[in-house]
Design goal:
This protein is an alpha/beta fold. It has 15 helices and eleven strands.
Amino acid sequence: MAAKTKKDLLRRTIEHIDITRHNVVPMVDAFGPMSYSARDLHRAAEIYDRMLRDGDCGIILCLAGSLVSAGLKKVFVDMVRNRMADAIVATGANIVDQDFFEALGFRHYLAEDYLKAGNDDALLRELMIDRIYDTLIDEEELRVCDETMQKIIDEMEPKPYSSRQIIREMGAYLEKHGKTSDSIVGEAYQQDVPIFCPAFSDCSAGFGFVAHIQNRQAAGGLTVSIDSAKDFYELTQLKIKSRQTGLFMVGGGVPKNFAQDVVVAAEILGARAPMHKYAIQITVADVRDGALSGSTLKEASSWGKVDTVFEQMVYSEATIAVPLIVGYAYHKGGWRHRTARTWNQLLEPAAVG
């Protein structure tokens, strides 16, 4: 058999599921009288619908893991577009390497089944193809994403910024170049929804920063930098000003901890901000190793972060659970009566038109 070429391997694209086309309400309701994860998922869907109907509740969407590359991008775009999320806390991979990457015109590709075993990863490296389990990415296109990030950073005034501020510049770039369609970054920019990436250097943005700093220092100039403490302060301010909040967490890690910790941070600042009133987490992580990704929401209540009345862990892989839970809430329609919170304006009223 002839050796596979790059063109052979990058043929079929990942297609993003469209929850607006599939009314899953009857099926998810049928999960209610069942047991195990089906019942848990149904309760999580009901809690999310309740969140959306609570006029006092601001909703924070947390994204960890390779979710956009897996075909969930449009779900999150629709959440932003339809006022189903008021802020996002995510990994840089989801926001930059995957969503912004696709907004630039690139795609993720389906890997053939035999590639999942990892026996051909050396060939993929030779062809400059990156693999995420059964998904393939063109490394040369990722380098364009790195370079685009550097261009955006180079044009900013040299000073420290929160990741939210830099991601708004990314949204402005997409709007300027007409690339906001079905992009989380682009839609969030248009809807004034803040996006935070607490570990922002751990993605294409980091490579862009490395190149920016190297070039500026070589020329004796000042540099743009990331202020992660400002990220934490800004999200804490949103918690203080909103008070009632709910969490929709996909995966765990830094986004989960960052969003939960703002309750404690508010207390340190002397504000009487209540625990997160609602919380859903979709995860496959185990609780027994002490890692944050698998720690239960009830455990978080011992830290004073999450109330236990409306919380639900769903032990399921995200590409299955997210479309069902969000699709249920979308077709139930509780979001139709929500008012857009435009939280960016709470943080930078003079900078938002």
